[in-house]
Amino acid sequence: MAEQEEEPKIVWFPYLKNMMRFNVDDDSMAAVPYAKAELYFHVSTKFAQVCAMAGGVLGTGIGCFKKNSYPLKGLISGTRNGMIAGIPLGILATYGAMKLIQSRDYDQDMDYAYYDRAYRIRYNRNQIRVDSTALACLAAGMFVPVPGFTPLHVAAMGFVGGSIAAGSYNRTLKFIRSFN
Questions:
Q1: 4 pLDDT band (50/70/90 cuts)?
Q2: Which residues of 47-75 are buried (b: 16+ CB within 10 A; e: fewer)?
Q3: Torsion over CA: 43, 48, 50, 51 (sign)
Q4: Is residue 106 predicted with pLDDT exceeding 80?
Q5: What is the CA radius of gyration of the chain?
Q6: What is the C-alpha separation between 91 and 39, in angstroms, rounded?
């Protein structure tokens, strides 16, 4: 008899479904085949968000004091530069944090530590909402033509706008739920 071949599964599908805010069953949520990649991706996204916002503030300040420059141009360039700088910083921060955990507890199973953090992020609806909205706005920003700016500049502004919008939505939900 010929062995039946298992149908290839898209292992990232539950993660992507969750990021798009579809309901995913508990078994699929618990299956985290690439826990390291998910954790690095999430932390890099968070660092890119924070650095893009900080870069926008710094870029605006620099744009105000530069001769023959405009604050808006400084804001948009600073946002792009901050977003790009945040990605490797997120990777380094994740690596450093996991090494710190390992140094404090030598018996810690690092594969389980990565899995545990990735699993908890999957269930944190607020984090998922901010990440998915920011990434959707980043993708949308790539296709919005703005004269005088590259698609990456506009995408970075969409990334920050999506982060702020989703964060504000989360805070509003928390405020509304406090009355229940």
A1: low
A2: bbbbbbbebbebbbeebeeeeeeebebbb
A3: positive
A4: no
A5: 20
A6: 9
